[in-house]
From TrEMBL, chain A:
Gene3D superfamilies per the UniProt record, alphabetical: 3.30.450.60
Organism classification: Eukaryota, Metazoa, Ecdysozoa, Arthropoda, Hexapoda
Name listed for the protein in its UniProt record: AP complex subunit sigma
GO MF entries: clathrin adaptor activity
Domain AP complex mu/sigma subunit stretches: 1-139
Oligomer and partners: Adaptor protein complex 1 (AP-1) is a heterotetramer composed of two large adaptins (gamma-type subunit AP1G1 and beta-type subunit AP1B1), a medium adaptin (mu-type subunit AP1M1 or AP1M2) and a small adaptin (sigma-type subunit AP1S1 or AP1S2 or AP1S3).
Family as reported in the entry's similarity comment: Belongs to the adaptor complexes small subunit family.
Record organism: Gryllus longicercus
Pfam families: Clat_adaptor_s (PF01217)
GO CC terms, sorted: AP-1 adaptor complex; clathrin-coated pit
GO biological process: intracellular protein transport
Keywords from the named record: Coated pit, Cytoplasmic vesicle, Golgi apparatus, Membrane, Protein transport, Transport
UniProtKB/TrEMBL annotation, chain B:
Region (Disordered): 540-601
GO cellular component terms listed in the entry, alphabetical order: AP-2 adaptor complex
SUPFAM superfamilies tied to this protein: ARM repeat, Clathrin adaptor appendage domain, Subdomain of clathrin and coatomer appendage domain
Compositional bias annotation for Basic and acidic residues: 547-557
Protein name as annotated: AP-2 complex subunit alpha
Keyword line: Cell membrane, Coated pit, Endocytosis, Membrane, Protein transport, Transport
Family listed: Belongs to the adaptor complexes large subunit family.
Gene Ontology molecular function terms on file: clathrin adaptor activity
Membrane protein topology class: Peripheral membrane protein
Function of the molecule: Adaptins are components of the adapter complexes which link clathrin to receptors in coated vesicles.
Biological processes, Gene Ontology terms: clathrin-dependent endocytosis; intracellular protein transport
Amino acid sequence: MQFMLLFSRQGKLRLQKWYVAHPDKLKKKITRELITTILARKPKMSSFLEWKDVKVVYKRYASLYFCCAIEQKDNELLTLEIIHRYVELLDKYFGSVCELDIIFNFEKAYFILDELLLGGEIQETSKKNVLKAIAAQDLLQEDEAVEGALREIGLL
Amino acid sequence: MEAVNLLSSNKYSEKQIGYLFISVLVNTNSDLIKLIIQSIKNDLSSRNPVHVSLALQCIANIGSKEMAEAFGHEIPKLLVSGDTMDVVKQSAALCLLRLFRTSQEIIPSGEWTSRIIHLLNDQHMGVVTAATSLIDALVKKNPEEYKGCISLAVSRLSRIVTASYTDLQDYTYYFVPAPWLSVKLLRLLQNYPPPEDPGVRGRLNECLETILNKAQEPPKSKKVQHSNAKNAVLFEAISLIIHNDTEPNLLVRACNQLGQFLSNRETNLRYLALESMCLLATSEFSHEAVKKHQEVVILSMKMEKDVSVRQQAVDLLYAMCDKSNAEEIVQEMLNYLETADYSIREEMVLKVAILAEKYATDYTWYVDVILNLIRIAGDYVSEEVWYRVIQIVINRDDVQGYAAKTVFEALQAPACHENMVKVGGYILGEFGNLIAGDQRSSPQVQFQLLHSKYHLCSPMTRALLLSTYIKFVNLFPEIKTQIQDVFKQHSNLRSADAELQQRASEYLQLSIIASTDVLATVLEEMPAFPERESSILAVLKKKKPGRVPENEIREGKSPGPTANHQTEQPPAPAPTTNNVSTDLLGLSTPPASQPSTTSTSNTGVLLDVFGDMYGGTGTPAQANNVNNLAPAQSTYNAKKFICKNNGVLFENDLIQIGVKSEFRQNLGRLGLFYGNKTSFALQNFMPSLSIPDELQGKVNLQVKPVEPVLEAGAQIQQMLNAECIEDYSDTPSMVISFLYNNVPQKLTIKLPLTINKFFEPTEMNGESFFARWKNLGGNQQRSQKIFKATQPMDTTATRTKLLGFGMQLLEGIDPNPDNFVCAGIVHTRTQQVGCLLRLEPNKQAQMYRLTVRSSKESVSQEVCELLADQF
């Protein structure tokens, strides 16, 4: 996979993850063009399109578009399911996720994505395992928060 | 800076934010990277797996060269170590993959190989999934070393496909067992030919059958996720079946399965089915099976709501087209073209043009199709397409009359496209006489018809029409005065375009001055074009690199298209690929391509006619020249290249190698053109340099790599840069290896890079010549050879050779007019070597004496050796 973009129906970019190195200017250009192309497509159209030299797979969930650019040889249908798995994970983590969750907790969205995909390849397909990893992270954070709080009030 | 501090924090939350910041915002700033590498190192060796994971994720996110250098050794250890946690192993595998992509050399070989391969047997599915991605990349680099993974992958796959969906617990996705891993394993296997071991092969085929069987089972869930995951595996299995291309049974089953998808409700499935079928159509086993679905595909092309799906349908039609269905498919594509989306029209036009040419048995049909193309989608008909139709008409006597008649009729339409006027003008100019017998298309009528379009056309077309008129002067003397009137009108200020004005006045003069004989010679019919790969195909390939569907059936299909292909397009000779439009022999404005017919008549006025303001004439002329230089079969002209720079260096039944080169000072640029003369693709095509030991360090060569496949009838160009560092003898060679029909072939060709290529000619007068000649009188500096002439002792031939050799030929210096003296400087990076030469022919004895003097002994000797062979 070359990159993943999340953007709203209004064309606002919500999350981007690049697995190939491009200069910022090019990234902006790609993002802009791709968003316009996809927003112009009608609901009944296929989720795949050939764009420049990559294949683009996208899907809309409520007001958010999830869009992945993959290599010529990658499997399109399964990419759709990677997107779906990611949505499921977000959903499970936030409890029926909405666009605002991703805007305000973007770091969590990134952490979850990092657990699912690494370097553009799928790392862990098991929902349970990803959530376990995230939960472990959260636990560490909370422990530290509690510790910090206790220290603040002078109990430690 | 704050982020770097956060990284080294002990608090997880701070560390995490630090990493997030770095992976999102830093990917090029190398100053920062140096600072964070230390922090990452610490975390990598931490005992807390969460910290290790964070570090690995960060490395993978940045994935720069520095990262590869810093961690290339650590990560493989983590990956195979027994006490690494599974989560960490997963990250390590993918992290390594990412670093491998940035710098290929980081992967250790030897004992590591088998340990990495055996990750495929790991208990933990997540680890296997990640490892498969890594192995897939490694295999691509070094298939032989990782061969062991085939059997492991097959057994893993077989365990998954036979598992029930409850077995794999959380790795089952909507009732499909481990779809990601299955797809990755199937992908991995596509790096290899079908397994050799019959046991493994049998097991693999069983797996593939099971997958095909499962597709027929009723779905276990109505959810789209279930069907997507299931079909993802199915499509990947079909790709593998197509890749292996050995099991007719599986291929046909795959084809039927895809056929079902063609009428599926899901747009995505229809899209993918069309795409996969394109590949099936190129296999000899399933080509026929694909053709059964022709009607549905045509329907998809017409009815599908989504343009990208329609595009796939067009691609598939193109791929499944062969002799038997060409007429129907071309007709359907033409019909559709009238309403087709603008975005795909141009590509469709190219496809129709290619199919029509390739499968034409009757060339009148071909002419009809192309003229229809122009009528329906004139704006999208590129120059190459109409050039091509003209080439074909000129080369085939049997269609010329028909073509003339058809274009004449087409021109009668009240509004016709400018491209039609061009084709019409050209063809009538050449073959208008063939239909002039008919009263309805008498010379008079033809001329008036064409001229009625004149005012509506662009200057370029007008120029073409003017040429047509002058051709008419020759064909139909009866309308000469009328045409002269037109020339008169346009030869003055009324014609704003300078080129048109000039053309008109020159043609006018030509028609007045020249006698009928001269006219007939000058305006003779165009000579046949050399056959070559259809330039249209090249355009299509350029337009869509990497995804032009093949319209060539692999292997075996003997009576069908391949045979036709052979007669139709014999191997492409000569350098043609570099620039497709100039390549067409300057057709842009017809007179420019006539030098061959006119160079004999030396009417002064004429010479100017060939100035062409519309297209570069230089390149096509040169290309043409090289073309003609390839007379003999199976020749190897290395020796000739000592005295020339361009031409055909080698040629046999399979391949032709042409060279174009230029040199300046101590630098040279060579274009090598490899042309495949066969009707099969040459596989594993690899030219590699071979530099003899004694040349090491004396000459510096750089070549650009070429594509490993040289398609049938195609030609590729390879550029080579040379720098002469020190003088040398002998020359570097090119070793060209490839597979023809799976038989390995190897050629060793000496490159035309002899030392004399780096000569700069020097002009000098007699006085200074003799002064230098005397100065270089020592034994160390001079080299002499007396030898017998092997070729007739012809003064002009000798002069040409000496000029081509690269030195300045000095006239009137030697007291004996029969002798030749030359001077030049050999440029190398380290020094410049002045060089003088004297060649004394003795006609009675049929002998030559050659003396070379230079400031360096080795140069004198080599120059003497090289030249002595030439006479």
